[in-house]
């Protein structure tokens, strides 16, 4: 089994090119996924801040309109 596995990973002498191509495909995809998740988290945080700001503004406006 070890010889067959070694032969697979050596790819008939083209292992360097094959594994480099695999790495150059997987690495950008992984970076894209990480960037997307970070951007999503930042966007959700910004939306939460805006919603909280709007609630505070509406609450303050309602307090000003209510007679003492």
Summary tags:
68 residues; mainly alpha; rod-shaped
Task: Please tell me about this protein's structure.
- The chain has 68 residues and is an all-alpha fold.
- The chain has one domain (15-63).
- Helices cover 88% and strands 0% of the residues.
- It has 2 helices and no strands.
- The protein has helices at 2-10, 15-65.
- The N and C termini lie far apart (85 Å).
- The model has no long low-confidence stretch (mean pLDDT 92).
Q: Would you count the extended β strands for me?
A: 0
Shape estimate: rod-shaped
Strand content: under 5%
Task: Specify the biggest β-sheet.
Answer: none
Order of helices and strands: HH
The amount of helix comes to over 70%
Number of domains: 1
Low-confidence stretches: none
Strand-pairing-aware structural class? mainly alpha
- Mean of the pLDDT scores? 92
Radius of gyration: 28 Å
Blueprint of the fold:
Layout: H1 2-10, H2 15-65
InterPro entries: Haem_export_protD_CcmD, Heme_exporter_D
GO cellular component, one term: plasma membrane
Function: Required for the export of heme to the periplasm for the biogenesis of c-type cytochromes.
Short description:
The chain has 68 residues and is mainly alpha-helical.
